[in-house]
Structures are given as C-alpha cells and as structure tokens.
Amino acid sequence: MKPVLHAVDASGAAQPSIPHYAPAGNECALFELAWRRRLPLLLKGPTGCGKTRFVAHMATRLGLPLHTVACHDDLSAADLTGRHLLKGGDTVWTDGPLTRAVREGGICYLDEIVEARKDVAVVLHPLTDDRRILPLERTGEELSAPPGFMLVVSYNPGYQSLLKALKPSTRQRFVAIEFDFLPAEQEIAVVAAESGLSPERVRPLVALAARLRALKGHDLEEGVSTRLVVYAAGLIAAGLRPAEAVLAAMIEPLTDEPDVKAALVEVAKAVTG
C-alpha cells in the first residue's frame, strides 16, 4: 500500500492527506454516524479486503488520532491498559494504547480482536455500553471516555473456531459492518491507482484473484487479498515479468504445499496467459 503523503497548508504546517479508499457501499456514512453517536464499531471480513485502510481513511477524514493495535495470542488486557514499569529506580505507571486513546480521544483500533487473550474482552465491555468508562484497577482510576473517543475492532470470520470466536455478549455491544472484496471493476481501479500499473494490465490479475478466491475452503485456507494483487501489480510496474510477479505475490504467500502450488501455477497460466 502507498504511504500517506502530506500536503502543506498556508502556514507551512504539514497536513496529512486522506489515505485512498474506494467505498463499496454506505460504510463511510455509517462509520461517521457511529462516531457521532458514540457507538463502538465492529468490522468483519476476509484478510486484505481493506478494513485497516478504511479505518485509517476515516480517522484522517474525521481529523482523529488513530491508535492501532495488532492483536495476537499473547496480547493481554494489561498490554492495552498499561502497567507499572521500573524507570531510574522508580516504579512508574505507563499507559497502554487503549488508555492513551481514552485519555486523549481519538480512535482505538484493535485489529483481529479474536487473536487476543480472553481477558481483553472483559476490559472492553465497560467502554462499549452507555457507561463508556475504563476502570484501571492497578491505579484505582476510572476514566470516562471523551466525546471524541471511538472503539473500533475487526476480525476475519473465516478464521473463527470454537476456540477463537467473539462471544455473543461481546458481539452485541457493537454496530457491525461486513466487508468483502470489491466488484471486479472497482478492484481493478483500486489496484491500478495503488500500483501505477495500467487498468488493462491489472485486469487479468484481478480475474486470477477471483479464481483463487473461489478455491478458499478447498485447496486454500484463505483467498488472495487485494493487498497481494497490489503487490503483484507493483512488481510488474517495476519491471518484473508477470509470471514471476504472480508467483511471488499471489501464489507463494498462499501455500507451502508443492502440489497445491503447482495447481495454482496452472490456474494462473490459464487466466493470465
């Protein structure tokens, strides 16, 4: 993905430009309404379909600070709220990203929330109802979220299992938006804009991505993300042969199985020529 560029206003101060995002429906309006109504938001959809870019787009569009946390198996409630640390021989409380967002305002975005430990959901519950508070047991504080604070979480339903799923008691605290990959013509336009490759040359890559996505749940655990299509197009724009770019960006990341990889190469040849 392209980095966020900066413009300069009349005073000479750098102003962040809005990260490019192609809406598929009314998600931008719904996000803004949720923010105004102080409602927490849940984004669900496959890997690489634009959820994180969407949050960055909306944060810049609304002029809000963005605190992003990539959730993982070892992420605990203390990682989000904060902990006491030794500094210069003294024990000092250090805020975590969630606490900083609640104190200062802005969007706290927890990416792939189901990957975090179960105690994280307990910490989020008081922030996702009409109380909008964050109790900090270790300091004795009870922080009230300011009007400009918004909690956004995301996850990929395709990875849900009995061990990794959002409980109904957590899901029903959020307004939810479901994401999917864009229709072909829109995806072509996005990939062309992000990579610099012409739409005509992007078209077969998007067609291949659609074919590979159809194999999800059969030979593949996950389909090709728009992100990977952008990577492939970018490599081609930089001078790499299309077949090599497709192999490196759209096939190798999907599987380590030699037989499956060989089959995907044949699919790629049939679609892209």
Automatic annotation (TrEMBL):
Q: Which residues form the ATPase dynein-related AAA domain?
A: 40-174
Q: Which SUPFAM superfamilies does its entry note?
A: P-loop containing nucleoside triphosphate hydrolases
The yes or no answer to whether the keyword RNA-binding is present is: no
Q: Can you give the residue ranges of the CbbQ/NirQ/NorQ C-terminal domain?
A: 187-271
- Cross-referenced InterPro entries, in alphabetical order? ATPase_dyneun-rel_AAA (IPR011704), CbbQ/NirQ/NorQ/GpvN (IPR050764), CbbQ_C (IPR013615), P-loop_NTPase (IPR027417)
Q: Which keywords, in A-to-Z order, does the entry hold?
A: ATP-binding, Nucleotide-binding
Q: Does the keyword Acyltransferase apply?
A: no
**In which domain of life is the source organism classified?**
Bacteria
**Looking at the Swiss-Prot or TrEMBL record, what is one Pfam family this protein matches?**
CbbQ_C
Annotated GO molecular function terms are: ATP binding; ATP hydrolysis activity
Q: Which family does it belong to?
A: Belongs to the CbbQ/NirQ/NorQ/GpvN family.
PANTHER family, alphabetized: DENITRIFICATION REGULATORY PROTEIN NIRQ, MOXR FAMILY PROTEIN
Query: What is the name listed in the Swiss-Prot or TrEMBL entry for this protein?
Result: AAA family ATPase
Q: Which organism is it from?
A: Rhodoplanes roseus
